[in-house]
Amino acid sequence: MQDARFTTKLERITIDSSNATVGMYVTKLDRPWLETPFVFQGFEIRDGEEIDLLQQYCQTIIVDVYRGSLSPTQIRSLQAAHGPSTKVTDKSAKKRKEPGKLRRWLVNVLLRLGLKGRKKRASKLSEDGYAITSTVRGEAKSAYRAYVRLCRKYEQAALSAAQHGKISRQALDKAVVQVIESILRNPDAMAWTVFSRRQIAQSTTRAVGTAVWCAMLGRQLSFDRQQLHELAVGGLLLDIGMVRLPAQLREHEGRIPDEQFSQLMQHVEFGLDILCRSDGFNRRVLDMVAHHHERTDGSGYPAGLKGKAIPAFARIAGIADTFDAMTSSNAYSPAYAAFDVGRTLNEMSGKQFDAEVVEQFLQTVGMFPTGSVVELNNGQIGLVIEQNRNQALRPKVMVLLDQAHCPLESPNIVELRDLPPDATHANAVWIIKGHEHGAFGIDPMNYFKPRID
Is the same domain home to 220 and 75? Predict the structure, then answer.
């Protein structure tokens, strides 16, 4: 099969969904993507389940002839048997604007007109289509402000849910918007903040952290602002039903006994009841709360849904919630290094979690997320301060401790992507492992020190 990244040919044809076949690459549906269970706008059909869903939701699909596992001849023969095509040829493709070209032009104009002092790299486009318009350090203060405000609003919402059985969506919206806008400017700054603020009440940091990971994944998938808003609100409120559980169960240390686990599972039902009593929460947010514990293989709860039967936003919520839980210290387990969590999620890919969602999520946060503590092959210890979206294992690192794990006189910034990765090279540098948050007494927030009013 020819790798679609290297082909210059473009030809798309419309076929009847009844003729969908494993190996076809679907580029467009006859209805909006988010009205279907398919998260990704463009995918190769992998199994009969996806064919059944396409036939259930669509009458026709548009297929890229030169992508996927089937040959162009096989695909054209299927199209020929099902009526006329809507075809995009190489000639007409030249008239199509390059994705992100208008955004890149606009950012460059703004830089020339009013942001001349900003470094050129601040205007680069990330692979998700949104412009990165700020450096991590430049965005740190705004990210910190937005994060703390959302923490406060969540605490107020949780108190309202416990006392009155409902919450105000309007009270959350402004704080959520500020978080999203910061993530759009530079997601690494908000990721840094999440890993730096674990000392706040655990239920609060878990809620806000999950909201952040949901919105960051939505950014990676090029969701629009409204969809990002829904993802963040849903991620924030996944466990709001916990306020109705007994304190001794919420604060229980160690593994929950089997006889109490069914009681813990009720937080989903309680959460839905709270949101249904409240105003302004749409179906996508309700789906996230209702199904974030469902798993692709059917092992989740409360309904035991499988595969694409789990709503798209709920699949995003499930992996974001799991990542935040495993990288946080809580009553049930210690915090694990983000790199180890990434490996665990890879092992769960295609089983508990949708393989495509896992792949996109790990591209979003990186195998060594911004703000995580890492160890280099030379024994030095540092903090990841910026992701390299093209080489997830080679981010930018702020080296803080020498080979003997003693503090350096001043931090040393190392851009791993600019150094040789080959172990046989004398100057080769790479990350050998990640460490849990707070390892070696390192607090990421000490290195930005943003203040709020």
Answer: no
